[in-house]
Structure prediction request, 207 residues.
Amino acid sequence: MATIIDLSHTLDNNTPVFPDDTSIELKQDAFLEKDGYTNFTLKTGMHIGTHLDGPWHISNNTITIDRVPLDQFCGKAIKVATGVNTPVITTDLLPQTLPAGTEILLFHTGHQDKWQTDVYFEDFPVFSTEVVEYLLKHQIKIIGLDTPSPDKSPYAIHKALLEGDILIVENLTNLHLLPANKQFDFSAFPLKVSADSSPVRAVARIE
Prediction:
């Protein structure tokens, strides 16, 4: 029987945001006892919590996330454990060969343990440029991270990934629950929203 593992952070008013991004505002505005029904309103940017960066985020590709084919958001994945306290992720940390059919790599750095701390958005591991070449060579369509970003300003890695048709899922959690050296199904479907990016409910399905 398959096991489904939730890899997403919960969205609430305590969800941390990237510096200078808009804070989330989740508010109950209707109450069953008073109004006869319950309702909440949500005010947020698209890059909140566990989210997917779409093609238009940092590239010249103006396609909005609702127009990206659904099969781009799911596929066969493996976990790549890079180790805690690794400031730069290089190709030396990546497998020389990938299981047949692998389309998605989830990078487990251990940085998720700093979620809700002051350093989460400051002190995180980043990709080397050679990693982008590796991902393109292996025709990877999604990378997932337990960090806020694969790089820092001016975001050249972001640009290279998105222009290479590689989507980016940021702020994953629970990657320690995923098996090592075993392929599994991963999905991170965005809202059908006419925007550059979207929050997602990212999950892994393990047979």
In short: The mean pLDDT is 96. The domain at 3-7+46-206 is CATH 3.50.30.50 (Glucose Oxidase; domain 1). Residues 129-137 form the longest helix (9 residues).
